Amino acid sequence: MATGRTHRPATRSRGIPEATVARLPLYLRALTALSERSVPTVSSEELATAAGVNSAKLRKDFSYLGSYGTRGVGYDVEYLVYQISRELGLTQDWPVVIVGIGNLGAALANYGGFASRGFRVAALIDADPAQTGKLVAGLPVRHTDELEEIVDHNQVSIGVIATPAGAAQEVCDRLVAAGVTSILNFAPTVLSVPDGVDVRKVDLSIELQILAFHEQRKAGEDLGEAVAAARGALPKTAAEAVDRPGPDGDVPAVMPA
Amino acid sequence: MATGRTHRPATRSRGIPEATVARLPLYLRALTALSERSVPTVSSEELATAAGVNSAKLRKDFSYLGSYGTRGVGYDVEYLVYQISRELGLTQDWPVVIVGIGNLGAALANYGGFASRGFRVAALIDADPAQTGKLVAGLPVRHTDELEEIVDHNQVSIGVIATPAGAAQEVCDRLVAAGVTSILNFAPTVLSVPDGVDVRKVDLSIELQILAFHEQRKAGEDLGEAVAAARGALPKTAAEAVDRPGPDGDVPAVMPA
DNA sequence: ATGTCTTTGTGAACGCGTGCACAAAGATGG
DNA sequence: CCATCTTTGTGCACGCGTTCACAAAGACAT
Questions:
Q1: Which of A13, A199, B176, B233 is a good FRET partner for B131, with 20 to 30 A between their CA atoms?
Q2: Domain span including residue A33
């Protein structure tokens, strides 16, 4: 997981808990994979392991959406895909702008997972005039000067910030002023936005730091209680967790092949 | 924020709650910025707003680390930077391998926030022979065949997976078998790992879907209760939240400039 | 040395999220 | 039509995380 979560206090939106909303995309991904394999129905148990969660949790999550299952059988895959998509708002078109076309911005532009979920990259924007006009993922890079016009013209309500930290707040302000009300921020800064604007944050460095913390703890434990596990051998109980959720039909993030 | 959180049930490591650990990097970033501006001390209130959290929460978080503040004054910036760094394990060297050098992998390799936090990119690995030897961020891309040797030789315990979803589980298995015990996964798949291995997940598409959900809700609300806010105008109460946390001294994610 | 003022550290209450365990619902077979 | 078996939907209890509110602690001035 990443970091994010700069929402309004806890306005559980229309009764659906925030934690549930965060898991819906997970279920949707697993269901899409099943759908592509033409599996008609799935039990909460199967789907839960495929999504990497507890089956009781999954059932409770679905219960917030309504009673879409059949006792003794399970859930209809296609129907559930539709219901979750609709709940998440993926049945409509979401034009998105990406600001800051460096490696990360380019990775995002090329990311296949967007288009398949109703997200359409309306424009790529960068402050560097040398970049202007260059094609990235088939789209021409536009200059920051055009930001307001692009947002307004394409009715963009979701903006992605992949600029350096120093530029993030200004870009954010301009996006918001132009009409954007949801922002996905990859820059390592705390953005301040007016009320009513949602910000989610993804911070690569923070994720690594959290891993380092646990890693350090593990190392300390090993030293203190048992012999440091010989490197090269499988750690601790390598048994269990042998079940593999089937491969995911989703388009990868990036990379040649 | 991103998604992640595939930890062991809830093993609050040595009394420090998981939620607190996740915020420590946030505090550290804010403190580093203050340190660069040579600010000697900071109150919980100031630091909290800079990090974008509640001041009571911040004080409680710090109380888990010990009593590092001075009543009536605040916290010593330098001292706190050191304590948090030590707690997170950032005072030691963490060699990291990045597997999958596409746009995203390259973005990660170029990401400055790593080096400044004790993370050292030990190697870049890709399955495409055509990529082998190419320089990315000053490092030569190595072939997947060398994975085990690289991990073993460099004593790598943290691996970053930025491959397509289809390749992620195999890469994961090989990393774990070679001795990696912490994995940061960018591929849109649920990885299964043996006990004792930590996995954190960052899923770009999921973040956008969560934003879309709230966006849809906002749109529905506007339609239902009030006049749809005229696009182009600042939404709702544009007042408040005018305080700006100072610019962050951190090195940006990517992008030319 | 004493009083005042600031800011920390934390006890306690509250709310959300999780997981158990089971009753209700429906499918399926005879 | 009845019995059995599977699987959902949920009431309930528990634990973590958040927030309030305040007492204790120290700085600082007089």
A1: B176
A2: 13-88
Touching check for B101 and chain A: CB below 8 Å? yes
Whether A146 contacts chain B with CB within 8 A: no
In a domain? residue A239: no
CB contacts, 8 Å: B214 with chain A: 7, 13, 182, 198
- Listed by number, the residues of chain B in 201-220 with a beta carbon closer than 8 Å to a beta carbon of chain A are 201-219
Tell me the chain A residues in contact with residue B162 when contact means C-beta distances shorter than 8 Å.
253-255
Q: How many CB atoms lie within 10 A of CB A26?
A: 23
CATH of the domain at A104: 3.40.50.720
A196 touches chain B (CB under 8 A): yes
CA B229 to C1' D5, in angstroms, rounded, equals 55
Beta strand extents in A10-161 (DSSP E only) = 41-42, 69-70, 74-76, 94-99, 119-126, 135-136, 139-143, 158-161
Tokens of B58: 């911040």
The answer to whether position A227 is within a domain reads: no
Using the CA of B73, which nucleotide's C1' is the nearest one?
C7
For residues B31 and B47, the answer to whether their CB atoms sit within 8 Å is yes
Tally of domains within chain B: 2
pLDDT digits (tens, 9 = 90+) for A12-56: 445 899 999 999 999 999 999 999 999 999 999 999 999 999 999
What does the pLDDT look like over A177-228, one tens digit per residue? 999 999 999 999 999 999 999 999 999 899 999 999 999 998 876 554 443 3
Within a domain: residue A102?
yes
